[in-house]
Amino acid sequence: MTGQEINRDVWKQAASEAAAQLVEDDMLVGLGTGSTAAFFIQALARRMQQGLRIAGTISSSLASQELAQSLHIPITDFATHPSLDIYIDGADEIDSQLNLVKGGGGALLREKIVASASRRFVVIADQLKLVQRLGQSFALPIEAIPFAAPLVSRKLTNLGATVKLRGGSTTPFITDNHNVILDCTFADGILDPAALDEQLHHVVGIVETGLFLGMAQQALIGGPHGVQVLP
């Protein structure tokens, strides 16, 4: 592991610890997916060991739910609790407006569902996730129905994307929802995220996009000088 990788884990953990302090007694908490979210889940478990009481959690992936259960964090569902107090999750890219690219872990659909059901969405990340323009350093994930994937891929190409089926055609990555992920690279990044998202939602066969626009209220960014709070 390189020095930068070690630093990034320290920065992610610092942001996660700060986020865990936002959780109050009797809250319903959304749990994200990925390495940074895993740090948060562990930090939340430590707070519970110190006496924090939470009403329940809903995870954006089976992996996060299994981690939460292993740490004795209470689990609930939307049938029981249709709204959450707070959702804490990482992101692959964050711009100055707190617009995000998410889905590196393949859970973008469930992440967006949990985010939309939460009163407050807080993003946690290391400072290398901050970007001037979305799509310049990370591919945009698109969740698509497998049957439609070739058609969707062609339409994405027509929109200017270079498209790769995650995992390849022999062993494609399959989401918790039994769909596939198409990773889209744009040569100059995403010039107009809102316009692109609107176009993508009119493509039949696309289930959801990894663009999270106007959904996050706050970001906790770990770096060499501690945790920065945005905005």
From TrEMBL:
User: Reaction(s) catalyzed by this protein?
Assistant: aldehydo-D-ribose 5-phosphate = D-ribulose 5-phosphate
**InterPro entries reported for this sequence:** NagB/RpiA_transferase-like (IPR037171), Ribose5P_isomerase_typA_subgr (IPR020672), Ribose5P_isomerase_type_A (IPR004788)
Q: Which GO terms describe its biological process?
A: D-ribose metabolic process; pentose-phosphate shunt, non-oxidative branch
Keyword Isomerase assigned to the entry: answer is: yes
Identify the domain of life.
Bacteria
User: What is this protein's function?
Assistant: Catalyzes the reversible conversion of ribose-5-phosphate to ribulose 5-phosphate.
Subunit comment: Homodimer.
What HAMAP family does the record point to?
Rib_5P_isom_A
Q: What is this protein called?
A: Ribose-5-phosphate isomerase A
- Gene name, Swiss-Prot/TrEMBL: rpiA
